[in-house]
Amino acid sequence: MISLFGVLLAAIVGMLFGWLWYGPLFGKLWMRESNVAAEKIEAVKAKGMKKQYISSFIFTLVSAYILAYFLNLLQVGTIEGVSSLVFWIWLGFQVPILIGSILWENRTFKFFTLNAVHNVIVLFIMGLVLLWI
User: Is 32 exposed, middle or buried (CB count within 10 Å of its CB: 0-12, 13-18, 19+)?
Assistant: First the structure.
């Protein structure tokens, strides 16, 4: 059975990690690799980012729910099981999509790596939350 509280908590933790990753940890690298000027970020912040945060949270909730569904369906009950499932979801579904940023959007490998590593860590953290709730 899927814990909706677990899904909610996993999404919240995923969003907090994203804030940390793209803020204090790698915000400057992300801005440089995505060719976004600091002035543009400040202009967006000044207008307010409520819509972006709400939309992002909704899709993070969807990801957490789908991950919970697969954990439940496959009866994953260990950290090793979560790691394995997350790795294969990441490699099979996220990496091929993210590689398009290099192939079609003329992004750097650093940009790809920054986003790909973020995604696998978020999935793993959400998986741990779901495992323990």
Answer: middle
Mean pLDDT across the chain, nearest whole number?
94
Question: Do residues 85 and 22 make contact, with C-beta atoms less than 8 angstroms apart?
Answer: no
Q: How far apart are CA 78 and CA 70, in angstroms?
A: 13
Q: Is 43 helix (H, G, I), strand (E, B) or coil?
A: helix
Q: HSE of 8 in the Cβ direction (CA atoms, 13 Å)?
A: 3
38 pLDDT above the threshold of 80:
no
- Nearest alpha carbon to residue 132 among 76, 85, 84, 89: 76
Q: Both tokens of residue 128?
A: 């741990």
What total number of domains does the chain contain? 1
